[in-house]
Amino acid sequence: MVHEKVTIIDPIGLHARPTSILVNEAKKYESKMTIRYGEKEASLVAMLKVLALAVAEGAEVEISAEGSDEEDALKGVIAVMKSNNLI
């Protein structure tokens, strides 16, 4: 398992548009991917569950990947978060 902690910088937080982009990116990989915010965790391929975390600006989240392509999966999701100004 690989993971990375990142801080959300989008003023609206993790809202619908960037969440849909993250979910689509996570679905490209075989690895199980999760996002953790505080004590809550959600699968990164379940858009409504990710939105239910209500991640706000300035929040620290942990992105995790576990599986055969875990390193590529983590790098891919982090890259998408950066390119969409989430982190």
Automatic annotation (TrEMBL):
The keyword Membrane does not apply. SUPFAM superfamilies: HPr-like (SSF55594). It comes from the Bacteria. It is found in: Cytoplasm. InterPro entries: HPr, HPr-like, HPr-like_sf, PTS_HPr_His_P_site. GO terms for biological process: phosphoenolpyruvate-dependent sugar phosphotransferase system. Belongs to the HPr family. This is HPr family phosphocarrier protein. It comes from Entomospira nematocerorum. The lineage of its organism: Bacteria, Pseudomonadati, Spirochaetota, Spirochaetia, Spirochaetales.
